[in-house]
Amino acid sequence: MNKTDLVNNIATKSGLSKKDVESVLNGFLGEVTDALSTGDKVQLIGFGTFETRTRSGRTGRNPQTGQEIKIPSSKVPAFKAGNKLKEAVK
To answer: What is the pTM of this model?
Structure first.
């Protein structure tokens, strides 16, 4: 399912217009992005938690030359599913 499918499904089930649903969805995604960029986490009880994790630096290899390169540490977004979501997927 892509974003367009999601908007269409929500609009059909909620009775809202596609434009309104897309606006709300874009607002939600923007708020989650803003929260993660400032180091906060977003917790939706029963669904899951969006958070950032620090990936430690490591040594890698350039596959073309075989030369070792240093990969610096970085912050990456992560999602941990909640219990209700896990049960629904089972």
So the answer is: 0.80
